[in-house]
Amino acid sequence: ETKVALRSAAWCLIWATSLTLSEIVIINQLIPESLFWPVALFPAALSVWMFYQFYLFYVGVDEFA
To answer: CB neighbours (10 Å) of residue 22?
Structure first.
């Protein structure tokens, strides 16, 4: 159970970091326009993975055990 909680916390940190970096990069226009959508959509795709991780934590499933 601790392993699942630690993995969930790690994914939260990765998710929050990607959201923050994506916002900073887009607002400050630090990338060429051709990379705008990949940078904007990466946190959205990661959000789907995060909700899946929260679901696994909620139901207590450890798929890596």
So the answer is: 19
User: What is the rounded CA–CA span in Å between residue 3 and residue 24?
Assistant: 32
User: What confidence score (pLDDT) does residue 57 get?
Assistant: 75
Give the pTM. 0.64
The C-alpha atoms of residue 19 and residue 1 are separated, in whole angstroms, by: 27
Name the amino acid, one letter, at 14. I
CA-CA distance, 57 to 7, in Å (whole number)?
Answer: 9
CB atoms within 10 A of CB 33: 7
- Pair 58, 50: CB distance under 8 Å: no
> From CA 64, how far away is CA 4, in angstroms rounded?
9
